[in-house]
Amino acid sequence: MTMTHEQTAIKTTYFSIVGNTLLAIIKWLAGFFGNSYALIADAIESTTDIFSSLLVLFGLKYTSKPADKNHPYGHGRAEPLITFIVVGFLITSATIIAYESIKNINNPHELPKAWTLLILGIIILWKETSFRVVMKKSKETNSSSLKADAWHHRSDAITSLAAFVGISIALILGKGHESADDWAALFASFFILYNSYLIFRPALGEIMDEHTHDDLVENIRKVSANVPGILDTEKCFVRKTGMRYHVDLHAIVDGNKTVKEGHDLAHKLKSTLQQEIPQLEHVLIHIEPN
Description:
This protein is mainly α. It folds into two domains: 5-207, Alpha-lytic protease prodomain-like (Up-down Bundle); 214-289, 2-Layer Sandwich (Alpha-Beta Plaits). The protein is built from eight helices and three strands, in the order αααααααββαβ. The protein has a three-stranded mixed sheet with strand order 1-2-3, with helices on one face. Strand 2, helix 8 (259-276) and strand 3 (280-289) form a beta-alpha-beta unit. Helix 5 (144-173) runs antiparallel to helix 6. The longest helix has 30 residues, at 144-173. It is elongated. The two termini are 44 Å apart. The mean pLDDT is 82.
């Protein structure tokens, strides 16, 4: 049986939760025993990633609930709201990392252990792979919260890469350059903040019904033109709700047709659109006489 977009997104989130939990434990241990604040900063982000992934899981399960009396358009709008909370986690972790980095830059401490570089190398490969897997699934399912979760993986990969560079510089230059590790963590915090904006902006557009669906509108018009009896299409408004789309479409038909014939054509067009473009949830057809 083919999985729905919602089921695919939920399964992908479980992958994120398990991966983030294992990596957070590894980073905390390696950072503590390896004298690396950059790794501890990385562990802080991975820990917040666990909670944000749990939030994404909750949001996806909630948005997959069917429409009811109080929510006739479904529960999809919960998804961008969850994305906002996930962005809040990102900003919080970036702020904590920046604060602790600045504090540690001014406090002398031991050089990081060389073996931490091996740990970081493995983490970078794993997190970049995780980013690509989750991002691919977010595109397949049209999920903004899954996209936010994917960028958590990419941010984690970047902070790990920054830590790798910082620790390498500290080890190569030796005593007196221990703070290179902390500067790397500080750089990573600014990168996380930048990505927070990139995640926040599309989710805000979704809440505000911003039009960013030109390709989908073109596809709707193309499918409509192939329905017998539909002469052309006029207005076409699209709103994204969770992983689904709601469409208001004006279709032009022969003005000599009866009301019943126009009604039947509208139903035929609606069913054709939902069959050819499965991500369409509600489709409202307004008949315009030619």
